[in-house]
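Entry 14: structure prediction run for ATP synthase CF0 subunit II. Input pasted below.
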Amino acid sequence: MHNLLLLVLQVSETEAKGGLFDFNATLPLMALQFLALTVILNLIFYKPVGNILDERDEYIRNSLTTASASLLKANELTQTYEDGLAESRKKAQSLIKNAQQNAQAIVSEKIKEAQQEAEKLLNDAYDQLNIQKEQALKSLESQVDVLSHQIELKLLDLNN
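Run finished. Output tokens:
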């Protein structure tokens, strides 16, 4: 306990001399030390870090500029290709439409020819049937005449 009391007395004597803020030769020394440390930290740490951050910022800016230019070029190419594709589609649709019209015209012509040929065949068949009918009638008439004549002869022979 005696030691504790002695320690308290020593602390109170030092506080009485200068207190917490003692303005002696240590204050300018601390100020010089602070300024020297600031200069050293600025040279060793802050400038290289600042340079690295500036280089990174410039790299990012250049990358963004390059990316923007590439994006514009890509958009232009896309638009060009889309325009070309639309034009190609129009041409293809036009070719398909023309081919369909040509095919329809050919089909219509073939159908018309087939109908005319079918009508001709029907007329020919009708004419041949009429000719055969007339021949059959003539043949029948001659056979009827022959049969009538034979019947007449038999009837006459029977009557005689």
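Notes: The chain has a mean pLDDT of 86. Will compare against the previous run tomorrow.
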